[in-house]
Known about the structure:
The protein is α+β, with helices and mostly antiparallel strands. It is built from 13 helices and seven strands. Helix 2 runs antiparallel to helix 3 and helix 7 (132-148) packs antiparallel against helix 8. The chain is elongated. 19% of the residues are buried.
Amino acid sequence: MKNKSTRYLSYRIAWMSAILFALILVLLIILTVIAIQNQDYLVLVLGGYLSLIVAAQVFYKWIYRPYKGSAKVLRLFVTGYTIHGLFSQSIFFSPEIEEVTKKVQEIMNTDELFNATKKQAQYLALQNQINPHFLYNTLEGIRGETLNAGLENVAKMTEALATFFRYTISNVENLVTLEDELTNVNNYYIIQRYRFGERLNLSVEYDTENEMEIMSYKLPKLTLQPVVENSIYHGIERKIGKGNVHIKIETTATRLIITISDNGIGMTEERLREIDEKLNRTTLEYIKPDSEAHSGIAAVNVNNRIKLLFGEEYGICMYSTSNVGTDVEITLPLIKKDIKE
């Protein structure tokens, strides 16, 4: 394997530039000594030094600084931290590199990628789940039998489970209203209450004066429920005493901000850093095996889907304090119901 200093053209250029600069500097020093001895050509030597300084500044501004900026963007792209930064560069290494970058942009069209991953999600759903209609009909049958037997609590739980499955499985690619998402979260909460009882409490806060408008805003399906599930299983389940999950909905002129808070066990600083690192990356692999779904990956998957749909300025921020609780802030564009999807 070739030495790193000669394997890449950028290193060769750097070495040649350094050697050339050193040779010119040595030559100027020799000329300075001769000029001082002969008391002649001092102005010419001084001009040489000034020219070298100007050349060094031009080299730094025109070549070194743009090179470092481009190298940084490429490193961030390779490690998964940015996609759009690669395509917004104003200076390229060569015309060929610019053409390659444009070609990569065409290949990595977000719409095409999202459609591909959507098809993967649909395939996994078909592979891992029985016929949804059979499931709905079976649950409805169980609910009818339990109502006939006077078991109203079981019937209520079965109804919530059937509604939850129907919402979760069907049309996973669609944008839905905030009202629909909150209804699904409430059905999930009803199911979990049968397990946790009075230990679990869910509350939702928003501006009730603008309720109709707020509830009509649109967001990707299954944005809230996975985060609420994380709050329950990773925060509240291992907590002693009552657990509260609070959903706060706020809007600005252009954004919908939803904060899901819990008073669970929280996270260590190290664990929070690990999740933050994943949240700050833009990765296309947001579909994970079930074995990974319980390790905090759900929020990362939701975050990646939001970024793929709307851009890197949107997504999830997470804040947590050990033994205090966790806040998950979801930032989305403000999309109204009458806007075409």
